[in-house]
Write a structure and sequence with these properties.
Layout lengths: L8 E5 L1 H4 L3 H10 L1 H10 L11 H9 L11 E7 L7 H9 L6 E4 L16 E4 L2 H9 L4 E4 L13 E5 L9 H7 L3 H11 L11 H20 L7 E7 L6 H11 L5 E4 L5 H8 L3 E4 L2 H7 L5 E3 L40 H4 L5
Parallel strand pairs: 1-2, 1-4, 2-3, 4-5, 6-7, 6-9, 7-8, 9-10
Antiparallel strand pairs: 5-10
Helix pairs in contact: 2-3, 7-8, 11-12
Bound molecules: magnesium ion.
Length: 350
Amino acid sequence: MPYELNNRLVVGVASSALFDLTESDAFFRAEGEQAYREYQEEHIDDLLAPGVAFSFIRRLLGLNDLRKTSDPLVEVIVLSKNDPSTGLRVMRSIQTHGLSISRALFTQGQSPYEYIGALDMSLFLSGNEEDVKAAMALGFPAGLAMTSTSVDEEDEGALRVAFDFDGVVADDEAERIYRGEGGIDAFRDHEAAKRSVPLERGPLREFLKDLNLIQTVEEEKRQEDPGYKPRLRVSIVTARDAPSHERAVRTLEEWGVTANDAFFLGGIDKGAILKVLKPHIFFDDQRGHLESTAAYAASVLIPYGVANESPQAEPQQSSVEGNATAESGTAPEGAATKEPNAANVEEEVV
Ligand SMILES: [Mg+2]
């Protein structure tokens, strides 16, 4: 019988999000593909250091102890544009770090993200901006792991996941109103009038739903064993505030999706909240917000909707993930374009 994916949470991760490939990438840029290939062979047993998404992935996989090993709740699959040979070091590092990842796609220079749908993934994480945008263009849920300086503090295997709401969990309808001629007043009126009309789903709605599935299993376990403390906690951190908060709450209810916490910030800096909340990963559709959160959480850009339609600085790099095709310009993996887009750093509501 084939290994079924549709009854678990499946995440795709590029090596650029899982590991810090700064050194490999610098070598590739300086020496070219052939030398890079030899370099990776020579360093095959050198452990790659954790990257932006490492801690999130490790903790997510840790939840697999909720079910038997042959039927895990979480499946993480490596999606890489490396070829199988240069990918060996990545797989060795995965093993040495003790991550239970056994499945991987190495598609030399091609687009592994085309397989996101076939693999039932509700999230794909990469440090390569071009790949993330291409995956999004195909309608797949993809996030760009931004440079992050947060440090993971050990604490009993908890996993805290935080989401922005508009343009991430929900679509960008409200953001479009806000950015229209009427600005914030039109946004507030619109959202108040539509308070009981659920928004359309955004790119990470299914991922949130999958997390809820794990929470259901945790709750069942807690009922069997009152001493069990649920480890997965989900938070919404949004710039919506009253009265526009109601539509967000109603939308989640209508979908049958839940969050443990909701922060309706009305423009308060999200970084200040994340400093206390300490999520292991945070998703937002606006670069400007992630600039302030990157010190406190692995921060992931969901390049979706109107917030990402304004002219952006072109990606300054591809990366090792793109090296097999020797795409022009490479740079450290996981290091997304750092320059904030002026249009995005202005006052943003949702
Ligand atoms: Mg947003």
